[in-house]
């Protein structure tokens, strides 16, 4: 027996747990090239089905939260006075 879940609930689920490529790039405030580099190096997991590509929202938010530390680690010269 199939659960009768409304389209609105399903769309809300997608909104709560997944982001598109464009949304992920906007959240992280990085270039497309940098984003695809992260994806290709398996730093960010890609989910695709029938040509649609999504990313886990919590993974993108984790990356955002660690981004400042990573920038400091790999680009300390940006933080010198």
UniProtKB/TrEMBL annotation:
Residues 19-67 form the Helix-turn-helix domain. This is Helix-turn-helix domain-containing protein. Pfam families: HTH_17. It comes from Listeria booriae. It comes from the Bacteria.
